[in-house]
Write a structure and sequence with these properties.
Elements: H1 2-15, H2 21-49, H3 58-67, H4 78-105, H5 108-116, H6 118-128, H7 136-154, H8 161-190, H9 193-217, H10 226-254, H11 256-263, H12 266-277, H13 284-300
Length: 312
Amino acid sequence: MTVIWGTNYALVKSAFQELDPQAFNALRLIEASAVMVATNLIVRRFLSRVPDRGSSSTPLRASAEIASIFHTPAPVTRADWIRLAWLGIIGHCLYQYLFVGGLAKTSVANGALLVSSTPVVITLLSWLSGKERVGAWHWAGTMLSLAGIYIVVGRGAHVTAASVRGDAMLIGAVVCWALYTIGARPLMVRHSPVGVTALSMLIGTLVYVPIAAPALGRVAWSAVSVVTWLKLVYSSLFAICIAYTIWYAAVREIGSARTSVYSNLLPIVAMITAYVWLREPIGPAKVVGAAAVLAGVALTRMGQQRLQIPAE
């Protein structure tokens, strides 16, 4: 999961040389949402054929438990659909628009570090809404992460107007994903996490595609290479579908706290990949800033056992 998400930043950015960022992302979302929804339907059909969930048959019980990551039998109520609708718009449509647009304008290192600060933003928004008490460790982690972001973004070398706009868009994307994470928690009490993701992603994709239609219309399809199409398939199937499933399976097996530790490695993998693949420089400011951001995120997660939904 860490390798998939960490390499996805450089892979996606390199694909922008042949495909408009929003056009690339529209195609990525169409493919990923179709696969996620189809998987949910297939698993639902499988679960309906399991004769007895309480059966003493270990293979059947294990299969049903694994399948429940994708689908749960609880009905989707009207209130659930309303919540899924605004989650899809904020957490998939608006988030993806800002994430891809921002990544196209700034460096992979900046993008990965900004997105890695999501747990800090989730903590702050939870505190502002009165849903979570923020202790001394959380405040220390928040300030340390903000200082790290300032070192990388605010004082980084070769800052341009475009990179500043890109960083601002990525900060907006982080806020969107934090709102999505907080808003999805009530649904995940009754429904499977992958099921909630699949339905909200489908709604977000239906809103996103018309917005990206002008970009899709400008694509010179004959000029798009096979390599770029493979990057698209990798980014949709692996970075969204497979990596999400690994994440949720890991949360169930080892807990959200231990699973979150691995996501702290994402900026490191992303920075190394960008250096090798895109020749993006790694200077002292980025190293110090990355260390501060990751240390701050680790502090905010101390003693926190809640599920954190990942960014793709």
